[in-house]
Amino acid sequence: MKIIQSILGLLLFSAAFAEAGIEWERREATLAVHPAQRKAAVEFKFRNAGNDPVEFLSLRPSCGCLSIHPEKKRYLPGESGTLRVVFDLANRIGPQEKKVMVVTSEAPKKVQTLSLKVDIPEAYRLSVTRLLWKEGQRETQIVTLTNVSSQPISIGKVTSSDPRIKTELKTVRPGFEYRIELTPDPRIGNVRSVIRIETVPPEGMKESKGYRIYARVE
């Protein structure tokens, strides 16, 4: 009986030892973001708790909106590291949950999952996102932008991919309401243009969300 118990104990010890490897400080992260924020980053810290080097074999995001940045690929026993995940928030609002599936050399058939949650607040609402001038129509059309969040967000610049569609930005209420007047050159036809709206990055941020209007002149 003692021999059997010893064997079982050895097997349990071996199984526990086999599981040793990457230990995560956390596997879930929840972020708070600014309504105009373009990207959000989170760091998942870990340590190689095993006795053998561990290598990342696969880092697969659940969405193309995620980019994954390990400090390096291989970690020695006792070595710590950080896996940085960047979430592109453009064109997204509301609750979001994205995942990163991790496979390492310690258990190549086992998938470890990291989870990133964020509730993206809405910023600007556009009265229309597509404009059409039919043949013979070349009058000015107006698009209204309304910031529905409680934080002021300034509109910095409005540009047209085809300069023959003139854009003029007018401030109604700074940080909360703007108006864009768009007027096509009366001589043009069969033209498509993308109107790009750039917001001013909030303090401490290098970039912020933008918006698009798609215009067509028949």
Summed up:
The chain has 218 residues and is mainly beta.
Radius of gyration: 26 Å
Which secondary-structure class do the elements indicate? Answer: mainly beta
Total count of domains: 2
Strand and helix order: HEEEEEEEEEEEEEEEEE
Helix content: under 10%
- The general outline is elongated
Question: Which residue ranges are poorly predicted, with pLDDT under 50 across at least 5 consecutive positions?
Answer: 2-19
Q: How is the main sheet built?
A: 5 strands, mixed
Mean pLDDT: 92
Describe the structure.
The chain has 218 residues and is mainly beta. The chain folds into two domains: 21-120, Sandwich (Immunoglobulin-like); 124-217, Immunoglobulin-like (Sandwich), CATH 2.60.40. The chain contains one helix and 17 strands. It has one helix at residues 2-19, and strands at residues 22-24, 28-31, 39-48, 54-61, 66-70, 74-75, 80-88, 94-104, 112-120, 124-126, 130-133, 141-147, 155-160, 165-173, 177-184, 191-199, 210-217. The strands form four sheets. It has a five-stranded mixed β-sheet with strand order 2-9-8-4-6, with no helix packed on it. Strands 1-3-7-5 form a four-stranded antiparallel β-sheet, with no helix packed on it. The protein has a four-stranded antiparallel β-sheet with strand order 10-12-15-14, with no helix packed on it. The longest helix is centred in the first third of the chain and has 18 residues, at 2-19.
Question: Mind sketching the topology for me?
Answer:
Elements (H helix, E strand, L loop, with lengths): L1 H18 L2 E3 L3 E4 L7 E10 L5 E8 L4 E5 L3 E2 L4 E9 L5 E11 L7 E9 L3 E3 L3 E4 L7 E7 L7 E6 L4 E9 L3 E8 L6 E9 L10 E8 L1
Parallel strand pairs: 2-9, 11-17
Antiparallel strand pairs: 1-3, 3-7, 4-6, 4-8, 5-7, 8-9, 10-12, 12-15, 13-16, 14-15, 16-17
